[in-house]
Amino acid sequence: MKFGEKLRKYRLEKGMTQSELAKQAGINVNTISNYESGKTYPQNREVYSILAQILGVDPDHLHNENDDFLSDASAKYGSRGARQAQELIEELTGLFAGGELAEEDMDAMARAVQEAYWDAKEKNRKYTPKKYRKE
After folding, report:
1. CA 88/CA 90 separation, integer angstroms
2. How many whole angstroms separate alpha carbon 73 and alpha carbon 31?
3. How do the domains of the chain map onto residue ranges?
4. Which of 87, 97, 2 is nearest to 40 (CA)?
5. What is the CATH code of the structural domain delimited by 3-62?
6. Around 36, how many Cα atoms within 13 Å sit in the side-chain half-sphere?
7. Residue 8 in contact with residue 36, Cβ under 8 Å?
8. Which of 2, 37, 42, 74 has the smallest number of CB atoms closer than 10 Å to its CB?
9. What was the pLDDT predicted at 84?
10. Average pLDDT over residues 102-123
11. Residue 135 and residue 132: Cα distance in Å, rounded?
12. What pLDDT band is residue 32 in, cutting at 50, 70 and 90?
């Protein structure tokens, strides 16, 4: 389950509106809406802790490494990079579906693939058309 889906689920379980959650967290209501729709992720890890405390859940459960990966891909390569990162995560999720791989091994595999993504992006940077480069 993605961060936005978890956020919405726990907010609704608490009987809160987006506006109420935003006010308690000191965040704009549009930001909460964007989080829940999956358009954006918190750039600051502290936001995960604040939201988790309000919702009464573990911050580590609310946040996952894929969130950081998507956020970093978006910051470094824009919407195109974020879309490619999201596709990679979805493909990895499908690869692990129904398997008997230990949680630690799945995490290690995901980190390795993410590292390969960053390496490939750097190596292919010189072939990226200028209009797509983030300087």
Report:
1. 5
2. 19
3. 3-62, 65-132
4. 2
5. 1.10.260.40
6. 18
7. yes
8. 37
9. 86
10. 79
11. 9
12. very high
What are the tokens at 33? Answer: 């809406």
Contact criterion met (CB below 8 Å) for 82 and 70: yes
Rounded to whole angstroms, the Cα distance separating 107 from 77 reads 23
**pLDDT at position 135, please?**
55
> How large a percentage of the chain has pLDDT more than 90?
27
Quote the pTM value: 0.56
CA nearest 7: which of 43, 45, 48, 39? 48
